[in-house]
Amino acid sequence: MTNDPAVTFHRTQEGRLAAQLDGYAMIAFPARDGRISVWSAFNIDRPPEQWVHDDFFICGTSVADEEEFRAYAVEFAAHIAEKATLPRMSIRSGHSTPWGMADASHRYGEGVIFHSSPSHGGFELSAESNARVHEAWRSPDRFYEEDIDWAKVAHAFPQLFTAYERREADITLRNWEPDAYEQIHGVTLEPGQFMLR
Question: Which of the 8 DSSP states describes residue 77?
Fold first, then answer.
């Protein structure tokens, strides 16, 4: 069954709902809280009907049910297509970062570089680019790690990120930086709109 030309949905032999999209594979596994955990992998060399748990190694998000799983897969396919239109490019690696020497680096835009190392990764901004990050979120060393702080870069440079990434950045900042989020956006977050406080 297909909801979008870029996504096909399947059932594995175990009855799990799976999605195949442009080299990516996703599968729905039950979570302890009654929700569905979305696991993913790349380029599995067997038909989706033959996929098994051991094929998947990235546990991303969780969704309420199979309908949300399908919507998430379609949204992620749109993210992949949009990302291909952005001017991101690989550049020479070997830069020193707070996480060690970078083994891969990508230029997102002028003064916005993403570095990855064997242990971790994140963004490095030029002084000019760093000045565009809101002062409540600005890093004095111009580095923004990939788990939470990347979202501050996405907030400052939305044109360099996909709609999916911008939405994830907004969720991340609401959850982990609620006080600054309220200050910057001039809003009051209600219970259920964030995780920390």
Answer: H
Q: Say if residue 19 is in the same domain as residue 62.
A: yes
- pLDDT at 36 exceeding the cut of 70: yes
Which DSSP letter does residue 139 get? -
64 and 135 assigned to the same domain = no
Residues 104 and 123 in one domain: yes
**Are 125 and 141 in a shared domain?**
yes
State how many domains the chain has: 2
pLDDT at 61: 87
In a domain, 194, yes or no: no
Q: Supply the pLDDT for residue 197.
A: 53
**What is d(CA 193, CA 73) in angstroms, rounded to the nearest whole number?**
23
Output the average pLDDT for the chain. 93
Instruction: Please check whether residues 74 and 154 belong to one and the same domain.
Output: no
| Structural domain harbouring 172 | 89-185
Q: What is the 3-state secondary structure (H, E, C) of 10-73?
A: EECCCCCEEEEECCEEEEEEECCCCCEEEEEEECCCCCHHHCCHHHCCEEEEEECCHHHHHHHH
Cα–Cα distance for residue pair 3/85, rounded to 1 Å: 22
175 and 100 in a common domain: yes
Please count the residues of the chain.
197
Residue 26 has pLDDT above 90, yes or no: yes
Report the predicted TM-score, pTM, of the whole model to 2 decimal places: 0.83
Q: Does the pLDDT of residue 21 top 60, yes or no?
A: yes
The pLDDT value recorded for residue 2 is 41
